[in-house]
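Methods — Computational structure assignment.
A single polypeptide chain was analysed. Its primary sequence is given first, followed by the predicted tertiary structure written as C-alpha cells.
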Amino acid sequence: MVDIQDHDIQLIEREILWKYDKSPCDYPDCDCLLSIRKDMINRRVLAHQEEILPDIIAFNEALSTALRELYDRAHRMWDSIKSLPDFKEGTSLEAKCFLSYDYPELHPIQGENRQDLWYALCDSGWNKVYEQGLSLTPLNLPDDDETFESFIGQDGEYYNWNEGLDRELTKDLHLTSAFHNTFEHLEFAITDFIYVRKFETDIRIEINTSV
C-alpha cells in the first residue's frame, strides 16, 4: 500500500486531533487543515490508482445500494404522508446519506486515535459541504421529481463521474455523482472513504404553515 502515514501527514493529523479535542468547530483554519491533509494523501495515492481500484469499485457499489435504499424509503414515506387525511400543503421531505459514524473496519491503518480523527473528518462544522450529505444535493420531495438513475447521475449519456481519476483505468466503472461529490467536493482523502461499506441516513419532514 502507498504510504499515507509519513511524518508530514502525521503532524497534520495530530494538529487536527488537538484542535478538535480542544474546541470543535471554533477554528477558522480547521477546514484548511482537512484540505491540506486531503491533498497530501491524494497526491501520493492517485499516483498508484491501480492499487485501490478494487476498493473504489466496492465503495461505489455500496454507496449506490445505500442511496437506492434511501431513495425508496423516502418515496415510501412521502406516499404515506400524502395519503394522510390531515396532509397540509407546504409539507416537504428531505433525505440525506452519510458515511457510517464508525471508523472503517477495512481501513488498512488502525489505531487508538483513528475514531477521534474520523469524528473530526465527518464534522460538518469542519467539513462544511458534508452537511448536505454524500449526494450532490439532498433528495427533496415533492420538488425532486426524478428517477433514481437521475438522482445518482446515471441517466443520459453521462454516466461515469470519474473526474480527477485515471480516465483509462476507470472508464468502465459507472461512478456515481455521489462518488464524485465525495471525492472532489468534500474534505475526505480518497483513502478515508473507499473503505466504507456502511452508511447513515437522515430523513426529515418539514411542515410550512402560514399564520
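Note: The mean pLDDT is 92.
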